[in-house]
Amino acid sequence: MTEFSELLEDMRRRQQAIANGGGADKLAQRRAKGLMTARDRLDSLFDDATFQEMGGHVRHQARAFGMETRELPADGVVVGTGYVDGRMVSAFAQDFTVLGGTLGKMHAKKIVTLMEEAAKFGSPVVAFKDSAGARIQEGVDALSGYGCVFYQNVLLSGVVPQIAVVCGPCAGGASYSPALMDFIIMTRANAYMFITGPEVIKAVTGRTVALNDVGGADMHAAVSGNVHFLAQDDSDAVRIVRKLLSYLPQNNSEEPPHRPSPDISLAEDDGVRALIPDDPQSPMDVRRIIERIVDPGEFLEVHRSFAENIIVGFGRIEGMVVGLVANEPTVRAGALDMDAADKAARFIRFCNCFNIPVVTLVDVPGFLPGVEQERGGIIRHGAKMLFAYASCTTPKVTVILRKAYGGSYLAMCSREMGADFVFAWPTAEIAVMGADGAVAVLYAKDIKAAEDPKAKAKELAAAYRAEFASPYLAASHGYITDVIDPARTRSTIALALRKALSKRELRPPKKHGNIPL
Ligand code: HXC
After folding, report:
1. Which residue intervals define the domain CoA carboxyltransferase C-terminal in the entry (predicted)?
2. Whole-angstrom Cα distance, residue 392 to residue 79?
3. Can you give the pTM of this predicted structure?
4. Residue 278: other Cβ atoms inside 10 A
């Protein structure tokens, strides 16, 4: 009979082999390059001593290409649960030191089991992607494995938050798993993501391209829009995951982690007034307005380098979690274009999935005019914003700071799109179109006949602005809750939010709407 001590010794030896991944040399090489190992990543994500591994002993079942004798610890993926700031999170990290972190049947099964359990426990999923893709030796079983992971990504969408950290290779169809999740964080060091890389592009199109130009983190953050957060390295990525989770509920049946202040401060903030330019044509830096509206240090911008003409992000106002959407007039005058509409619509839909109130700050001259925009489908893209706002049933508070013209007034969550409260600054201009364009149409003959057409147009535009674009006109028609002193913006939003948190809105049952894609 085997001694108990021998059983324990055997267990420890097996555990050590699993923990060693692809071997001490390979782990050391990674660390020497400044990269974390799969286990380092999970250790730094989770609160101390809270990680419980699942399926460390799982073994691949491949037989071809000499795989029978090949040991792949944990089958190349470390899977388990732990706590992040005291809240349960399900996570996995692909281990590149084990056959390139490639995905085979059992590797995929471990991930799928984790996700099924995350749905049961209602815990967010965090995925560290560092893999050379489908394990070639496992053929169609590897493809099937990917399919099963994608399927779970879709089942979990809108049920628990899903966050992907792309921190190594993520090539071909493998990149669809992060794309099906809610947020992608990508590290500048070591990571790339593409459907077809430079070699295939060269072979098929003859064009030579650099890896970073088709798959680098900077490109995806600023150009393709696939990446929501750019991280310098692994520890920066983990910092972003932890911060992001601090704004999110565990699942769709919970409220986000509000920490409401006992009393809402009614103090005026002169600093906001000081940020408003005298000239309505001068752009206003809305990021500085956001800083004054949210609690100190409580703003996490999402998609910062993509479609910079609109800002989206999570924040807290008097402790209440909000999703903020704001036009950024210093970039393309804050006009809405295709990318801005996609960015805002996706963010609003995430907030709606997870019960997060939406605060919208409006300073928008319109949709961006241009042949490229029309041919690219600005109608289809812009419609996503209308669809997203109109279908969002979480509390919605809108503040019109300055311009709100035409369709973009509606696309930035007007009363008609279901805003619960719409406040306007006295500087708000709400009209079918901007004053200059409107008088050019309305008074074309008068301007032409005038002695000084330019001066006449200016005079007519000023009169139009005062009479037709005034917030009091919109308020007199019942479209504005109130016109407020900009110095009271934060307290006004906070009070409205506090009341709206109890909002319940029932819609006619349906399978799902058909958002224009
Ligand atoms: C099996 C693989 C592998 C793969 C790498 N390895 N890719 N094993 N299947 N797809 C193994 C290597 O043989 C090596 O094994 C170990 O992983 C590390 O790989 P290296 O090449 O030594 O590492 P490195 O030099 O850092 O290069 C990394 C790499 C390269 C650039 C990712 O390995 C590579 O190009 N691999 C092929 C990538 C690929 O084409 N994947 C399929 C994508 S298509 P040893 O034994 O030496 O440790 C796809 C379809 C998904 O994934 C479809 C989903 C719908």
Report:
1. 267-511
2. 34
3. 0.96
4. 6
- List, for residues 269-283, the tens digit of each pLDDT value: 999 999 999 998 899
Same domain for 274 and 422, yes or no, is: yes
Ligand 1 centre to CA of 496 (Å) is: 54
Q: What angle do CA 491, 346, 409 make, to 5 degrees?
A: 55
Q: Under a CB-based contact definition with an 8 Å cutoff, are residues 322 and 497 in contact?
A: yes
Residues 390 and 276 in one domain: yes
Residue 517 in domain: no
257 lies in some domain: no
Read off the pLDDT of residues 183-192 as tens digits, 9 standing for 90 and up.
Answer: 999 999 899 9
Distance (Å) from CA 488 to ligand 1 centroid: 57
Residues 83 and 122 in one domain: yes
What atom of ligand 1 comes closest to residue 147's alpha carbon? Answer: 55
Give the span between the Cα atoms of 421 and 252, in whole angstroms: 24
**506 within some domain:** no
Residue 469 — pLDDT band, cuts 50, 70, 90?
Answer: confident
Closest C-alpha among 284, 288, 166, 290 to residue 221: 166
125 and 213 housed in the same domain: yes
State the pLDDT at residue 414: 97
Q: Please state whether beta strands 421-424 and 482-483 pair in parallel, antiparallel, or not at all (unpaired).
A: parallel
- Are residues 116 and 134 part of one domain? yes
CATH number for the domain harbouring residue 27: 3.90.226.10
- Tell me how far apart the terminal alpha carbons of the chain are, to the nearest angstrom: 66
pLDDT tens, position by position, 87-118: 999 999 999 999 999 999 999 999 999 999 99
The ligand 1 atom at the shortest distance from the C-alpha of residue 169 is 32
- Structural domain that includes position 451: 435-468
Neighbours of 445 (CB within 10 A): 8
Backbone angles phi, psi at 479, to 5 degrees: -90, -10
Q: How many domains does the chain have?
A: 3
Residue 343 belongs to some domain of the structure: yes
Q: Whose CA is nearest to atom 38 of ligand 1?
A: 132
Closest residue CA from atom 36 of ligand 1: 132
Q: Please spell the DSSP secondary structure of 345-402, one letter per residue.
A: HHHHHHHHHTT--EEEEEEE--BPPSHHHHHHTHHHHHHHHHHHHHH--S-EEEEEEE
Ligand 1 neighbours, Cβ below 6 Å, are 99-100, 102, 132-137, 143, 146, 169, 171-174
Q: What is the pLDDT of residue 166?
A: 98
Q: Could you give the 3-state DSSP secondary structure of residue 500?
A: helix
